Amino acid sequence: MSDRVVMLLAIFAPMLAGFVTLLLPARAALLRTAVGASGPLFAFVSLLGLLGDAEHSGSVGWGYIPDLGIEFFFRSDRLALFFALLVSGIGSLIVPYAHAYFRGDAAKIGRLLPMLGLFATAMLGVALSDSMLGLFVFWELTTISSFLLIGWERTNPGAVRSALQAASITGLGGLALLVGVTIFGVTGGVWRFSELGDASMPGWAMTAGVALIGVAAATKSAQFPLHGWLPGAMAAPTPVSAYLHSATMVKAGVFLLARVVVDLEGVELWPLLFVPLGALTMAYAAVQALRGATVKRVLAFSTVSQLGLFVCLYGLGGLHPSDPSHHTLEWPIGQILNHAAYKAPLFMLAGTMAIHAGVANIAQLRGLARRMPVVGWLFIVGLYAMAAGPGTFSFAAKEFFVVGAYQATEASHHAWLGWLAIVAVAIAAACNAALLVRIGRLVFGSVEEGSVEVKPGSGWMWWPAALLLLLQVVGGIAPGALEGALLSVETNPLEHLYSTFDLFGKPGLPLFVSLGALAAGVVLGLSPLLRKPGGEPCDHLFGSLHRLLELVAFAVVSTFQTGSIRRYLFLSIATLGAGLLIVMTRDERWLTVPEFTGLIDSHEPAIVIFAILAAIFVCVSALALPPCRLRIVRVLVLGAVGFGVTMLYLINRAPDLALTQIMFEIISVIMFLLVMRMLPERTRADQDRVDLPRAAFAGVIGVLVGWAVFHAGAVPDTEVRPTGSAERLGAWFLDHAHEGSALTGGRNGQGDNVVNVILVDFRGYDTMGEIAVLGIAMLAVLAMLGPRRLRPALRSEQVRVPGVQYGPQRTLVSSMLRVGMRVIVPLALIFAGYVFFKGHQSPGGGFIAGLVASVALIVYRMTEGRVALRSLIPLNPALLVAAGLAIALVTGAVPLVLDLIGGEALPFLTSGDDKLYLNRDHSEYFHLTSVMFFDLGVFIVVVGASVGMINRLEEELE
Fold it and tell me: Which segments of 580-644 are extended strands (E)?
């Protein structure tokens, strides 16, 4: 099995396993837990198999839209595999822990597992993505899934607020990440992290890109002053806190910094930005943890402090000491594993204490070692590791950091950054040691009267914590047991992993800092300083900013969102005109009269005369539109303009465009007339009033748009030709519609109908967007009119708008029309099918066929009523649109699936073709192409949206 398939299966296995749990019996809590745990466990085992090739791993995947840099490439190097194994490994332990935490509650477990699976998939995608935009997609997926998990208690306003705060801050970081990677891609042509080392881009772009990526990392990893969301996220259940906010999600920002600092070198801004930020966060959060009142809040702030250490660590990685044998990054992977190996167990134990002994506040820990001996001792061991006590892996990790910071003092020009990091880690270590002393005195103290009785069954909750804490002990006393595994993923190791005994044999500043911090922490823990719980100054920062944004948003909405369609159109059209004006003033070619092929040189005189008359008809109809006072007359005149354009298409030998135009005009005129029936009549004063400013504005916009269209139709496109020859874009499509060339990478549409090939092949993404917009428009109409069953209740309220005719409307129905429709509708539908199947080689296609079928069904609906239409098409129009979009998307995704099976890398919407022979001697065949199914989706969407909107308008009138 290829690495690409292994990584894809590993990434999506947790999400799929979580969704499978939804299909299992509701009361099968244990079975659901087993299936939910199988996803991350499968990912862990699968990724372990890639460790042997981590040194030589490349980027594997495919280009979704390669020309735009939208790719999904994955990379299984040491850094990526470590984070992926961390996510999947701890996820495998969290699922059974969650089962014990919720005491087998099937409803809660069934609700939690799909969310945890979605989050695990998002984090695995972040860890393994090589493409920048792919990482952004998974990055945002972590924001969404964490929002759902933090807001677990949906009826708790505090939990909802915390979820909103986390989503807002990390979502802001996601936007910064998107802008940052776009800068790298647009200015440097770099869309993959593996290509960062070869990036060649302007200095301002490099600075801006690094700064924006830093903002993204700071928000996700809770750096000061954006850290407030993480303590607030403790409103989530403890399994969520242990997984998201100690071992995985909060390290996504750290991973992003690690990924960039490894692949990008020589950026002067890097250490100046991240070392002070991390040092400030490290020291500030450690002090706040010492003042915490609840167990989870203390653990949350200590997590923020450790994240500050990681940010500072990778900031120091941007410094290069004068001695090349020294490094500022010492065992960076080991540092992150160390934190996960004590912080996740501490959260698990906190949940165990809360469930089985009712312990939530620090003061309630008194006598815990006597009430819950195993949990109490394990909790103290976890705190001892957090304080980096001798004999733990954490002690060695802290030494590695201090050594790297001390060596950073030898870097030229920025020695102060190393000393800043050393001071910050000393403060943090002292506060952690003080926490150990204070909580230890409570845990081993006497049992308070009235303490909650311990409930049995806690063993199932503490064994995952004990398993992770074992890593701390082994790493501190016998690091050789971990060294082999860590060396396979470590990015910058020393010659070997030191134990506590080795470090005591190397006296120097790093060891003295550690021992001094421990001693200061013991003194601080015994003293009354910082003992009283206190609030956090930044707690109200988010609330104040949120209220400020609400005020600004209200001012903007009250100014622009007035409910006036006329104002909306004015702003939209004015923006379009301003954009055209800016483009025209910046390019002198727009100020010249273009040359274009003369009409007389390419047509017979009679055809030329007819074309001139048609053009005059279109211009006269357009000029007659403003003076018209009656709405219905305006609609008819507007339709006359469209029919005149149809004649121009016919003259220029474009029957497919002519058929599309005439069908569209029929549908639009019908829709306009139906809407006009619902609007109040205009007063005589409104009809006679002449609005000169509007007329002037319309004239200016008309000139700008007309000049732009004039240029677009006349100026040849010379940029697509490497020879620089003046060839029109239409001629280029003619050359490549059937046969490809080097300019298209050998790809072709294999169709003679250029218009259809453009719609479904060359510009397939445009068509996908258009049918999506069409579906959204239909949903907007249905939502605006509301469900039909609510109309009688609304009428009973006796709300009347002047000028609107209420009650059943008059209809134009005759016996002759009904009889004629019995023949016309079947013929029209057969003709639509004919146009659809012949569209790739002759004039036609899914869009035209959909319009033809829509016109037939709409007229049938108007003559026979909605009951007859429902019997003819027994499907909801919204479901039709959804089915059409699904068919189009699945057709576009098939090349990606085929690529996974084994073949060349095929982007989304890559077309293929074959011949379907109709007789035995193979003399007649049907050209079968994959875009036909994409066209089928277009056909269904057009029919569903057009018929659905007009049918709903008819129902409203009836």
Answer: none
In this prediction the pTM is 0.79
Count of CB atoms situated within 10 Å of the CB of 756: 27
Q: Give 744-757 pLDDT, tens digit per residue.
A: 666 667 777 888 88
Cβ partners under 8 Å of residue 217, min gap 6: 173, 223, 253, 254, 256, 257, 311
How far, in Å, are 67, 220, 956 from residue 183 at the CA level?
16, 20, 50
pLDDT band per the 50, 70, 90 thresholds, residue 887: very high
Contact 645, 661 (CB under 8 A): yes
First to last CA, the chain: 62
d(CA 178, CA 271): 22
Encode pLDDT of 343-392 as tens digits: 888 888 888 888 877 777 888 888 888 888 888 889 899 999 998 888 88
Check: CB of residue 799 under 8 Å from CB of residue 885.
Answer: no
Spatial contact of 353 and 377, defined as CB atoms under 8 Å apart? no
Burial of 325 (C-beta count, 10 Å sphere; 0-12/13-18/19+): exposed
Task: Tell how strand 925-929 and strand 913-917 pair up.
Answer: antiparallel
Determine contact, residues 286/302, Cβ cutoff 8 Å.
Answer: yes
Helix or strand or coil: residue 62?
strand
Print burial letters for 390-415: b (CB count within 10 Å at least 16), e (below 16).
bbbbbbbbbbbbbbbbbbbbebeebe
Instruction: Give the Cα separation of 279 and 427 in Å (integer).
Output: 10
The torsion region of residue 483 among left (phi > 0), alpha (psi -120 to 50) and beta comes to alpha
Per residue in 904-923, pLDDT tens?
Answer: 567 777 777 666 666 666 66
The Cα 347–Cα 365 span in angstroms is 14
Helix (H, G, I), strand (E, B) or coil at 75: strand
- Phi, psi dihedrals of residue 241, rounded to the nearest 5°: -65, -40
Residue found by looking up tokens 């690091």 in the block? 479
719 CB-near residues (< 8 Å, 6+ apart): none
Distance CA 605, CA 608 (A): 5
Specify whether the CB–CB gap between 349 and 331 falls below 8 A: no
Q: How far apart are CA 644 and CA 610, in angstroms?
A: 11
Which DSSP state fits 321?
Answer: B
φ and ψ of 812, to 5 deg? -105, 90
Query: Contact 39/118 with Cβ under 8 angstroms?
Result: no
> How many helical (H) and strand (E) elements, i.e. helices and strands, does the chain have?
37, 4
